[in-house]
Each structure stands twice: as C-alpha cells, then as structure tokens.
Design a protein that fits this description.
- The chain is mainly alpha-helical.
- 56% of the residues lie in helices and 0% in strands.
- It is elongated.
- The relative contact order is 0.08.
C-alpha cells in the first residue's frame, strides 16, 4: 500500500494479524507437544529435547501467545522431526504434517515398527507426491484393519493344521 491510499477497513490490522498468528502458533505448539507420535511431551521434556527453556515454551503456548523467536520454533520443530517451520503458520503444511503423524500413529497401532517416518534430508519429491504417499499408506493401514476384523469374525477351522497330501 502506498502513502495516501485509504486503509481497507475489512482487512485485519497488523496488530490483529499478530494476535491471530500468536494464537495459531500457541495452538499448534500445544497440539504438537500433546499429539506427537513420540509423545505426549511435558513442557519440561520438550524443552530439554529442543534445547530451549520450559518457560519459553509455556509462554509460547499461553492463550495470548508470546513473541516466540524463529530460533525457538526451528529448534522445537527439528527436535520433533519437522523440517518445515511453516507448520506453525501455514495451514496446508500444518494439515500435511498432521496427516503424516496420524498415518504414523495408525501404523504404530497396527504394530508396524520398521518404517522411517521422516528424513533429515529433503526427499526430492514434490509435496503433492508426499501427500499421495501419505494417503496411500493411510488407505493400506485402514484396509489391514478391515481385513483383521473380517478374519477375526470368520469361524475357526475344525482342522487347525489340515493334513498334507503325501507325495507317494
């Protein structure tokens, strides 16, 4: 906006944008701490893991939020396997990371232990491909659970070990 142009009253003021951003960061930080697949974490345990103070995290999670630094957000995000600090402000990134963590949680509930959920180096895959893979894995997990339920309801065989045909 250049000098002399009227301010659009329908657009939020910078102060309103700041307050909303602080609330969003506080909510997402709290959500991440409480619902992370390796958590939930106490403020103290996450602070230690991220190398920041518990007081800083508590202030950042407060209802008014705090002027949390990019350094703090980056440390917290990286300590929990999130390489995109846009998680805290970009709704699309937040949804994608949350979907990935939900898929990971479902895999863990199914007893899957041998999958790498995050990489420290970029995958080179476009975000749309990562999203498709996440959806595919979620579908596989759902199908496995449906198959498990269906098989559980089948009557057990009268012959747990059916006789083998002899080769003579």
């Amino acid at each position: 906006m250049s000098e002399g142009q009227p301010v659009d009253a329908s657009e939020p003021s910078p102060d309103e944008l700041i307050r909303e951003s602080k609330r969003t960061i506080a909510q997402r930080l709290r959500h991440l701490r409480q619902r992370h697949p390796e958590g939930p974490f106490t403020l103290a345990s996450l602070a230690e893991r991220a190398g920041v103070s518990a007081r800083t995290l508590a202030q950042a999670e407060s209802s008014e939020g705090a002027n949390v630094t990019l350094e703090t957000l980056t440390k917290v995000a990286h300590s929990l396997g999130i390489r995109r600090i846009a998680y805290f402000l970009d709704h699309a990134v937040y949804q994608q990371v949350t979907a990935e963590f939900d898929a990971l949680e479902q895999l863990r509930k199914q007893g899957v232990e041998g999958i790498a959920a995050r990489r420290s180096a970029p995958t080179g895959l476009p975000p749309a491909s990562v999203e498709q893979l996440t959806q595919l894995l979620s579908g596989i997990v759902a199908n496995v659970e449906q198959a498990r339920v269906a098989l559980k309801d089948l009557p057990s065989s009268e012959h747990p070990n059916p006789p083998r045909e002899s080769g003579s």
